[in-house]
Structures are given as structure tokens and as C-alpha cells.
């Protein structure tokens, strides 16, 4: 009767161990599905960021091509000074045309052609037939339209930045909470298995030392060895799950940090490029004002001399 009771206890213990294994396996499947969902969400956020940056890059290219180059052409005395800058801008324009998506480029070019009389593809070279007033009017129209488009691009970048920050914080908190929960579960399971192993080991030793029913004792010893192997396999599986969770957390943290660094670098480059464009535009605006004033004065002199 005593041996039967010990056998029943061993069966119950094995059933509890199997239940724990099933629970751990379900938790692993849930974690995999959650990680897959997070990866897809990060992919969508990265795609939106790349799309917005590509649109902004092509926007800067149009600004340089449609505004800076015609404005510099109005200043022949400074053309040699800005020749190096123009060469650099052309190289940047070629690179941006390779990076920006065709739908984005077509959208911006169509936007310019819809609201202006100029063809975006024909403004790379300065036309000698254009007058100062024509160039100034064309540049003014394009600048006004680009400023209106810039608000939309800035809104897209801000939305992508906010989504990335919120997603990164939520993922980091969720992963840390999941790791803490898994560590607690592993500790409880290890404590439970250790206690059960010690209890069943004592029972098996007492049965073997009693000398009763040696055949059943051998069978019990074989079951205990099998049970110890099962416990060892479970411990190894739990250690592997814990290591995988820590590795996934570290990988996610590195990915988030890389995305933040890349975003900050892109924002810094865009700010620097914007500052350079603003400085050149301010200088050109002053020069154009002087040219317009000089043009008005010359027209007045010509009108007076004709009379």
C-alpha cells in the first residue's frame, strides 16, 4: 500500500511537470507571435520614415534646382564664386534622384507644374533669354508653393518621429516586464522541481533500503532515473528560454538605439542643409533686391533720356 502511494505520488508529480512544460511552451508561442507583431510594426515605422526622408530629400533638390541655380545665374559677377557650390549641388541632386522614390518625385514635380508655368526638368541651366523680372517671378511662385508643401512634409516627419518614440518606449517596457515575469516563473518552477526531486529521492531510498519487493524497487529506481533526466531536460529548456529572452531584449534595445541614432543623424544633416540653404537664399535675396533697384533706376534713366 505504501509503495502504491509512492507510485501515485510519482505519477502526480510527472503530470504536474508535464503541465508546466505545456505552460512554458504556450508562453513561448505567445512570445513569438508578439515579437513577430512588433517586428512588423517596426518595419512599417521604418518604411514611413524612409518615405518621409526621401520626400524631404527630393524637396531640397527641387529647391536648389528651381531657386538657387536661377538666382545665382542672376549674379554673373558671383557665378565663378558659386561654381563649386553648383557642382556640389548637382552631385547631390543626382544622388537624391537615385534615393527618392519615383512616386514621390512625380508628385512633387507635378505639384510644381500644376501651380507654375515652369517645367522642373528644364531649369538646370540658365537661359539667357529670361529677364530678371521673369526669373524673379518664377522663383517667387516656386518658393511659395514649396513652403506650402514643406508644412506637409514637416508634419509627416513629426508624425513618424512621434510614432517611433512611442513604439520604442512601449516595446522596451513590455520586454522588461515580460523578462521579469519569465524570471519569476523560472525561479518558482526550479524551486518546485528541486523540492519534488528531493522528496521522491528520499522515498526511493527508503524503499530500496527496506528490502521488500526488490523487483518493484528496481522498477521504482528506473522511474526515478527517468524522472531525474526529465527534470534535467526541463532545467535546460528553462535556461534556454531565459537566455533567448535576454538575447531578444538586448537585440531589441540595440535596434531601437540604432534607429534613434540614425534619426538624430538624419535630422542633424537636414538642419545643417536647411541652414546652408537659408544663408544662401538670404544672400541671394539681398543681391536680387539690389539688382531690382538697379533695374528700376536704369529703366527710369532710359525713359528720361528717351524724352
Keywords:
rod-shaped, mainly alpha, 307 residues
Summarize the topology.
Layout: H1 2-73, H2 83-99, H3 102-115, H4 132-210, H5 214-306
Helix pairs in contact: 1-2, 1-3, 1-4, 1-5, 4-5
Q: What report would you give on this structure?
A:
With 307 residues, this protein is mostly helical. It has one domain. It has helices spanning 2-73, 83-99, 102-115, 132-210, 214-306. Helix 1 (2-73) packs antiparallel against helix 2 (83-99). The radius of gyration is 37 Å and the shape is rod-shaped.
Number of strands: 0
Helix share, percent? over 70%
Number of helical segments?
A: 5
Query: How many structurally independent domains?
Result: 1
The gross shape turns out to be: rod-shaped
Overall mean pLDDT stands at 67
Structural class: mainly alpha
State the low-pLDDT regions, or none.
99-105, 111-129, 207-215
Largest sheet geometry? none
Distance between the termini: 135 Å
Strand content: under 5%
What is the H/E order?
A: HHHHH
The whole-angstrom Rg is 37 Å
